[in-house]
Amino acid sequence: MTQLLLKGLQPPAHMTFANFYGGQNQNVVDYLQQALLTQKSSVYLWGSQGCGLTHLLHALCETASQQQKTTMYVPLKDAGLYTPEILANVEQVDILCLDDIDAVIGQTLWEEALFDAYNRIRDNHTIWVCTAKASVRGLTCTLADLQSRLSWGQVFHIELLTEEERVVVLQLRAKERGMIVSDEVIHFLLNHYQRDLGALLLLLEKLDSASLAEKKRLTIPFVKEVLE
């Protein structure tokens, strides 16, 4: 298993295809798991905050690494911590995953580095997968050729899960952690706290830790006490 990581960055072990609830996005999950690894295409994934884009990238890296492929994950929302030189030699890996590419759009040096990297990996058959909050057309690239390149491969819009689907995901994650959480508590979280799925999963982890530490069941009064 070989995954190239930026200094201080560790892959989250819980972000796999096995625990990603596809719902109406199952066709994208299937493509990333099966077709992408054989077709050598570039992929542009976009969707709203909380739709699971980062989860999909980490799941792809995990699956590819299990197949002895080299991967590199770059969170571009943290691009202020490094320079565009991070993209040097990326054509040497099998799969390059760029998370939140829109975070550096509009920055000339980053756009030029991305454009150059795209051309190099295309020549070397590296798989390019990037995510953004906006569609390709919705980007405000100063380098028109980069915007054009981003639309060359497969483009998928990741839909947000419905409330019923979020309930299912929270129940599944609670089961993974060995938690006993009633539907009443889950609906309380959905109705009174952040509805972003990523934020809800973090709340669930916090509640699990508090429940274990204080040896209390997850009731609504206890949830209020912990979170407020």
Explain the layout of strands and helices.
Elements: E1 2-4, H1 26-39, E2 43-46, H2 53-66, E3 70-75, E4 95-99, H3 108-124, E5 127-132, H4 144-150, E6 154-157, H5 163-176, H6 183-192, H7 197-214, H8 220-227
Parallel strand pairs: 1-3, 2-5, 2-6, 3-4, 4-5
Q: Tell me the Rg in angstroms.
A: 19 Å
Instruction: Write out the strand line-up for the largest beta sheet, numbering strands in chain order.
Output: 1-3-4-5-2-6
Number of domains: 2
Largest sheet: 6 strands, parallel
Q: What's the CATH superfamily of the largest domain, by name?
A: P-loop containing nucleotide triphosphate hydrolases
Task: Please estimate the helix content.
Answer: 40-55%
Oligomer: single chain
CATH names the topology of the largest domain as Rossmann fold
Text of the CATH class of the largest domain: Alpha Beta
Termini, distance in Å? 42 Å
